[in-house]
Amino acid sequence: xxxxxxxxxxxxxxxxxxxxxxxxxxxxxxxxxxxxxxxxVEFAVVLPxxxxxxxxxxxxxxxxNNQLTLTQAVGAxxxxxxxxxxxxxxxxxxxxxxxxxxxxNLTSSKISLSITINGGTPQTGNNCAGATSSLYSALNMPxxxxxxxxxxxxxxxxxxxxxxxxxxxxxEYEY
Length: 175
What we know:
Elements: H1 6-32, H2 38-84, H3 91-102, E1 112-117, E2 123-124, H4 132-137, E3 143-150, E4 165-172
Antiparallel strand pairs: 1-2, 1-3, 3-4
Helix pairs in contact: 2-3
């Protein structure tokens, strides 16, 4: 039987530890090799969903901005109508011009206008020269201006709410 001195035993143990360490690194490297493209695959799967979500957020933001613009423009049109009610020959045309001037980013041909004087019959359209007499006779009475506008909410060419219309109504009182 052969005996190994303690000095040689330390050398052999050191070699075995080094070999185990080297083999462990090789085995771990071999298992790790297949993970290099995992992040790219995950990104490719998540990217379309993320882009659709971001595009939807922007589309809703644009629609909300158009709604706010329409509401502000209808308010400006109603104030303008109260101001010119005794000097206008066509209240609908003048109100429509005030609304389109207050909302330059909205397409004026898509705005539908309706004016109600003192709770009477609504006058629709951009011309209502016949409503001038009722506007004069309703002095110190409220005037309601309403408008609608298509919201055109589309995400990647798909409309989740087809036929969507935004509406704004403002009633102005004369004191």
